[in-house]
Every structure is written in structure tokens, then in C-alpha cells.
Amino acid sequence: MAQPLVRVLLGLALVVVLALALLWTFQRRLVFVPDTTPVAAAGVVLPGGEDVRLRTADGLELGAWFVRPPGGDPAATVLVAGGNGGNRAGRAPLAAKLAQAGLAVLLPDYRGYGGNPGDPSEAGLALDVRAAYRFLVEDRRVPAGRILFYGESLGSAVVTELALEHPPAGLLLRSPFADLAAVAAEIHPYLPVRLLLRDRFPVRDEVTRLRVPSVVVLGTRDSIVPPAQSRDVAAAASARLVEIPGADHNDPVLLDGPEIVDAVLSLVPR
């Protein structure tokens, strides 16, 4: 009886090892969910929008949209870092409302998103957002003191890491998580995610090192990023906290609602 039992146990162990190996290999397909479809010309989707190209330090050329406010110089320029899904077309309504409020906006797409080349990763997104920042300060001559960072969900991690090197005039984090493992553990509590994850995105730890005006916006019924994690980030950053009652992660009010626009405007340097 012992030998059949041993064979069963060995078979189960092999299945577990194979499953973990597959998860290690393909985990980024679960973390990053890009819409790879090439986007339309900026002016078709975003009135007054301009198609621009960003060059990363590792040689990729990424598409992005830039829009200025109608009828005057911008009060500030917002660099928007999107979440883990979609592409910049889904953030066009936010950019349009910010432009109407008197701000310029840069909407970049990460590598692998919106028809861009490359495969997304934590290190890759860090290079991508730096290319966006360089475009603003070098190509468009935007003073660093007039740039705001806006991070949506996973994008909160992207701009927080950038802010450590290039502190902005203000930082808005929408639905930030404490770190990637913390939010992954909520979704997959049965997996040893802290051992398996290749990308970390340690938002909470990094915001403690920042000294910039910050706002955290969350929806109280967020089903993807637990509101408690966003509150934890806000406390660690000494940020102003804006809670939108009843809002889930991808509800329109959290994408481009008036509370979002007002929160961005509250960070504009006076």
C-alpha cells in the first residue's frame, strides 16, 4: 500500500510544481492586461489632441497623446499613468475634462499597450514613464515645478516611483494599492504570491520617502483594490484623502468624475 501512496503524493507534488512554474512564467499576463489595438489619431478621439512619440532609454518608441487647454497657457501639465488594462483611448475623457479646466495633459501608453512595441514589466514601465517625463521637460520645456503626476491604480505605483527621482508639484494617486503582492493576495489568497511575484510595485513603502503635496482618491466599494489599502497609502504619504461613496474601481465617477478633476486642480501650484 505504501508504494501507491508514494506515487500519488509524488504525482500531486509534480502537479503543484508545474502549476507554480506556469504561474511564474506567465504571471505578467495576469498582472498586465493591455488593449494592444492601435489607437486612432489623437484629434479624432481628443479635441485638440496631438500625436507625439516618446523614446525610452532602452530604445523603444512609444505612442502618446498631448493636449493643451483651449485659449491660453496651462496652469499646470498633468502626466497621466494608466492602470493595468486598456490603453490611452480610455483615458481621453479625463484628459478632455482636465484640458477644459485649464490644464495640459500627456497621455502616454506603456510598452505593449495601444499598439506600442515591447512587453510590460515593472522595470519597463519605469523606463516608459521616464520617457514621458523627459518629453515634457526637454521637448516641451515644461518647468518641473508645473508638472503634476496622476496615477490610476497600478499607475499609482508607476508615478510614485518616478516621483522619488523627479518630485512633481503634486501627486494624485487614484485607487492605489499598498504593493502588488498585497492586492494579489486579496484576489488569490490560496497562492504564495509574495514568493512568486516578479514585479513588486511597493507604493506604500515609497510614498513614505516623498515630500510632495499629495491626494489619494478611492471608491468605498472598490472590488479590486481594497479601500483599506488606499487609506493606508494615504496615511503613509500624509496625503489628503478623498473618498467617493459607493464607487467601484472602474465606475465612471472614478475615471473622470468631477471629484477627480477637482482633486487634480487642488494640486495646481498657486
UniProtKB/TrEMBL annotation:
Q: What are the boundaries of the signal sequence?
A: none
From the record, give the transmembrane residue ranges: none
Serine aminopeptidase S33 domain location is: 73-182
Pfam families to which the protein is assigned, alphabetical: Hydrolase_4 (PF12146)
Question: What InterPro entries does the record tag this protein with?
Answer: AB_hydrolase_fold, Hydrolase_4
Name this protein carries in UniProt:
Serine aminopeptidase S33 domain-containing protein
**What is the organism lineage in this UniProt record?**
Bacteria, Bacillati, Actinomycetota, Actinomycetes, Pseudonocardiales
